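Journal club prep — side note

Before the paper discussion, L.F. wants everyone to see what a predicted structure for a comparable chain looks like in token form. Sequence:
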Amino acid sequence: AVLSRIDAGQEQLGRRIHYSQNDLVEYSPVTEKHLTDGMTVRELCSAAITMSDNTAANLLLTTIGGPKELTAFLHNMGDHVTRLDRWEPELNEAIPNDERDTTMPVAMATTLRKLLTGELLTLASRQQLIDWMEADKVAGPLLRSALPAGWFIADKSGAGERGSRGIIAALGPDGKPSRIVVIYTTGSQATMDERNRQIAEIGASLIKHW
């Protein structure tokens, strides 16, 4: 949604956003270091995608008008399943049978494919999104740990309460993405390390039957 606004001339990657201690939420490893100088939209996008920085996500969400506007953006691109209702970190609550802040694997796979390969974004913005996802620094124990040498992956992982863990990715052999993979788990009593291993095992099975 941010890159769409960039393409439309409504936002600039170089615009600096200033914020305060009151804006910081749980798990903000990058934004907590820039309270005095702020961060550019580009830097916030990188922090949100490559480091899962929650404050960066909230600040970017503010630039597009909040959760309802993100949901509207998704609806406009044909995704009538995915919805965002709250901000970080409340959106990670994962209450059973609560439709707030939810999606489905097929819906997210379709949306990610449109963002990465469709005409929704300019070529430059599509490449920028892929670059950020390829530089993901917090998803190493998941699909990346199962990839053979030479495989390409651009991904974004997430975690929530009640054993929730997930990842969306574009991956493929020969250094090129050829398929979209979306994995979501929830309701597990497993530790985070165990959930990571489970997703890695799913990834290994996917690659075996590629």
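L.F.'s comment for the group: The chain has seven helices and five strands. Keep this in mind when we get to the figures.
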